TrEMBL record:
The lineage of its organism: Bacteria, Bacillati, Bacillota, Clostridia, Lachnospirales. This is tRNA-specific 2-thiouridylase MnmA. Keywords: ATP-binding, Cytoplasm, Disulfide bond, Nucleotide-binding, RNA-binding, Transferase, tRNA processing, tRNA-binding. Disulfide bonds join C105-C202. It is an enzyme of class 2 (transferase). The active site is at C105 (nucleophile), C202 (cysteine persulfide intermediate). Belongs to the MnmA/TRMU family. NCBIfam families: PRK00143.1 (NF001138), trmU (TIGR00420). PROSITE patterns: RHODANESE_3. Residues 2-47 form the Rhodanese domain.
């Protein structure tokens, strides 16, 4: 019988290298692929900032594939990445939102584009080194469970995968702890690069996204007013793309007390400043919804929600208020609910779904 073919997304790091090894051990016909997604001549990024897909990732991944004796290819997804991730990222900031490009990259590039090409070469699955587990529920739906014992949960950035994508996904390291994965990497003795810690946004050098956006759009960012919660002008800001809700640093205001960004108003080009207490709210609205564990939200549900990658899940109740919009009310007010970020819902360690936080 033919072995099932799986394409493993290889970044040259420990997790995806071990993922490839485990799948081979499990009897799959494994193919390694590194996606080239952004590095090009138009965006001048230095190699040391190359993040997950610079030239060194290709060299490292190729070496690992050779050691594992699996076929290896580099696939170019720069166009898909530009259209779905960089353009979205820039547009969201220009609208006064704070986007999460990893979520868009996962859904549209790592999964949609890579899956399409993988299926075209006869694969049944794609696999990554994410610490999460794909499960099929009794209701026939696919979803993710958080991996056990992992400090940084990776399901948050994966909430937007479709049923079809999940059905064709394997995440073999999700059954192991990070320590176990490191041990496996030592045992199989593949030379895995000690990658520098991922920078926050892989395509933005030095995390200076404001300069990146100016350069990318070839447009100077327009200055505007800082105002207080009553509308009184407090000073000049450097352009709304420089700010996010809850921000304290880098405001350049001296008001004799700590000042925080409470709201960004793209229509009037204003940034609203207040006290820390003004940054707390118990209600948010989200659109662009994607549910995994359930087909749709019919009745109110009490769940836990994360409003950013590093947020500790908080108890909330969600309900639909419109065909494509939900309302989420937290038991306790949460700090810095930020338009453009994802809100992701869990029942214990099981992903239920999520959406995009909107300004209301
Ligand atoms: N350029 C790429 N090409 C193909 N797959 C990739 C690429 N970058 C990341 N991936 C896949 O996405 C997964 C998660 O990416 P992330 O950048 O979070 O890596 P990580 O958790 O540090 O894993 P690793 O140790 O494998 O680098 C990786 O394990 C890998 O399977």
């Amino acid at each position: 019988m033919d072995r099932e073919k799986v394409v493993v997304g290889m970044s040259g790091g420990v997790d995806s290298s071990v993922a490839a090894y485990l799948l081979k051990e499990q009897g799959y016909d494994v193919i390694g692929v590194t996606m080239q997604i952004w590095q090009d001549e138009e965006i001048d990024v230095q190699e040391e900032n190359a993040g997950c897909c610079g030239l060194s990732a290709v060299d490292d991944a190729r070496r690992v594939a050779e050691a594992l004796d699996i076929p290896y290819y580099v696939m170019n997804f720069k166009g898909e990445f530009r259209d779905n991730v960089i353009d979205y990222f820039v547009e969201e900031y220009q609208k006064g939102n704070t986007p999460n490009p990893c979520i868009a990259c996962n859904r549209y590039v790592k999964w949609e584009s890579m899956l399409k090409r993988s299926l075209a070469i006869g694969a049944k699955y794609i696999a990554t080194g994410h610490y999460a587990r794909v499960i099929k529920l009794p209701n026939g739906r696919y979803t993710l469970k958080k991996a056990v014992g992992i400090r940084k949960d990776q399901t948050y950035a994966l909430y937007n995968l479709t049923q079809y994508q999940l059905e064709h996904t394997l995440m073999p390291v999700g059954d192991y702890s990070k320590e176990e994965v490191r041990k496996i990497a030592e045992k199989i003795n593949v030379r895995i690069a000690n990658k520098p810690d991922s920078q926050e946004i892989c395509f933005v050098p030095d995390n200076d996204y404001a300069s990146f956006i100016e350069e990318y759009t070839n447009k100077k960012i327009e200055e505007g007013n800082f105002v207080d919660t009553n509308g009184k002008v407090l000073g000049k800001h450097k352009g709304i793309i420089n700010y996010t809700v809850g921000q304290r640093k880098g405001l350049g205001l001296s008001l004799g007390k700590p000042a925080f960004v409470v709201e960004i108003r793209p229509d009037t080009n204003e940034v609203v400043i207040g006290d820390n207490s003004d940054v707390f709210d118990d209600t948010l609205y989200a659109d662009n919804l994607n549910f995994t564990a359930i087909e749709k939200l019919e009745n109110k549900m009490q769940l836990e929600a994360k409003i950013r990658y590093s947020h500790k899940p908080a108890t909330c109740t969600i309900e639909m208020v419109d065909e494509n919009m939900l309302k989420c009310v937290f038991e306790e007010p949460q700090r810095a609910i930020t338009p453009g970020q994802a809100v992701v819902f869990y029942d214990g360690d099981m992903l239920i779904g999520g959406g995009n936080i909107i300004r209301k």
